Prior knowledge:
mainly beta; disordered N terminus; 4% helix; 5-stranded mixed beta sheet; Maltoporin, Chain A; Immunoglobulin-like; 22-stranded antiparallel β-barrel; globular
Amino acid sequence: MRSTFAFIFLLISFLSFGQERITISGFVKEQGSQEQLPGVNVYVAGTPYGAVTNTYGFYSLTLPATDTATVSFSFVGYEKTDRKVNLNKNIEINIFLPTINQLEEVVVSARRQEDYISRSAQMSQVEVPISQLKKIPAFFGEKDVLRVLQLMPGVQKGTEGQTGLYVRGGGPDQNLIILDDAVVYNANHLFGFFSIFNSDALRSVELTKGGFPARYGGRLSSVLEMNMKEGSKEKLHGEGGIGLISSRLTLEGPIKKEKSSFLISGRRTYIDAIAAPLIKQQQKGDESQVKPGYYFYDLNAKMNFDLGSKDKLYMSGYFGRDKFYANETGPLSVTKAGLDWGNATATMRWNHLINQKLFVNSSFIFSNFNFGVSSYARDINGDGTVEDEFSLRYDSKIRDFAIKTDFDFYPSPKHAVKFGAQATFHKFVPSAFAIAGSFVDDPIQRAVEPVHATEAGAYVEDTWQALDILKMNIGFRMSLFQTQTKNYIRPEPRFSAALSLARDFSFKASYAQMNQYVHLLSNTGLGLPTDLWVPTTDRVAPQQSRQVAVGFAKDLERPALTLTLEGYYKNMNNILNYKEGSSFLSINGENANELSWEDNVTAGKGWSYGAEFLVQKKTGKFSGWIGYTLSWTYWKFPELNFGRTFFPRYDRRHDLSVVGIYEINKKITLSATWVYGTGNALTLPVSTYQGVNDNFINRVYPNGKTAIGWNGPRVSEYGEKNSFRAEAFHRMDVAIQFHKKKKRHERTWEFGVYNAYNRRNPFFYDIVEETTTEGTTVKTKNTLKRYSLFPVLPSFSYNFKF
């Protein structure tokens, strides 16, 4: 019987593949700039045959041989193009799609669920067109891709004003952030209030929250993949803007027309220049002057070369830095202190078309993040000689060199196979510092021995059209991490499927297992540059997660709405946290050379589950979306909270975002956002009282008031970890844009208001001791005080494009 079934299976396969087939392949590009377009739908209407262009605009579509067929090319923001072809031999078709007026529609996440696209196996994915991002109200007028992603269901902000992403119960280190294949370790400027990504330099932004394809690995919660523009091959273009706190400029154009191009984009804040007259002060008495300051800058650059019909070469890089300083100069003293941190990435990619069904991309990647703290103090005698001198420098670094190769293989109309491998060579310097001074007996110069580690992975995945109504993505990834004397080898199976229940209605399900070999240690949870990146070691195991998600997608034509509903469950093992009272930085001269971060951490587990709902209107004068998340997240560590389960800081029961864009006409656009979220879980003292020592006070003051008690230190008593729930936060932002277009350039003036109704959202809480008088007795009581960051903040920006 087994032999009979095997024979029948082979016979069906032979007959199927024995039919004469032809292959259509090529690249889809933007008309004019010749930018290669990813995600373009290529299909033959009325048939199950279709494909989607890859990251580099390449597609391959295999069809049964026939006389003629009409192949359609469609993509959001571009005119649909139909091409009638003779299907009697293999053919190469390169398509140039013309743009349309992108003010006519707004698309926030997945493409319209219709025809074969509704059976896309991918789920839990959000795509943000850059043109749409630029219409939404922004903090200080700075358009920020991470802030827009925070408005999506399943993605939560951390603290008010921060750009950190917390996806489906995960922490900020559990997001794999990729810019042109390079991993970015710290994506924040200004202590987390802005991200490092300049939207003018970006071509595409895609966030995956679950159902991860096998080609991605190394993080537990999400993959944020961004690709920079390639630069126009036709003529010189530019765009930029001038805002209240920063300005930016982007230039792109051909190096050799239609063969090569460049892009360069820069941004710099001038907070230091604006604030200098306001914060420069002179202290009375010693006539010392204090001069604090802060600025950041970033630079994106890219070149691409067309080496022929089958080969293309890309070189790109990002360089950015933040610097905060405070200098005080007096007649007899000098004090300097500062923080500086920054990222650098560089990528070289080579595309090669082996044949009409096989495409390969190879990348060589460099990534570096470093953080430093410096302090210097000097006291001078009256005769000009140095009395005392002290200096401190602390550094932490992570540096990567990586190589990866990815193949796209299209063996038949029902299969689209991706496979490849990558290797990353890490160098970690968890801490290095030096202390010296005239009053330090033994100057300390300590650098932890760099930790070298190798992370590698190999994968294969197949998008399989099993039935006309069923499409699946089946994948497997094998990951490896080698450090010191131990190797970790972990399998990562992946699966996702879409079942079309009707032409415009589909059911989707996915499962993904992920491993994470690098960890971020934080005392604050704010995603500050002071947080410490550390590797998996012999003593610290890798983090691991398993996530299951199911959902529905429905399109309505009248009104033109798209509705998606997803539920998920995720568990996480070996997540790291500091032990109570621990920190990565402890400098005291005695144990500095014995400090080990591995002794200060504890491993635990977590789990998160919830539901996400999104309804969006894509077309018409009024567009936007409503996103809602209901979720629960729990942590459990043997050495925290007495081993009992607790809510992590950013557990959030309810999270709601409302976004609206109204185009009055082609010259005026109104936009507004409103957000609401359950407050963060915090740990606060349940009581504070006077400690006891040998000094008993029974004092009568001259005014007749008395003070009686023990003169001990104030002591705070804590209960359950994160048992206090902060107030809910909510906020509205509004903006109006005025557009003016001419033949060769366009201008946009934007006026916005952040926190329009002046909601004082909590940033942190503190216990404040307040003193009251009753008769002749002085009494004290403890009061919980809320501190907020941002009141109403108006903004203005001028943007131009030519």
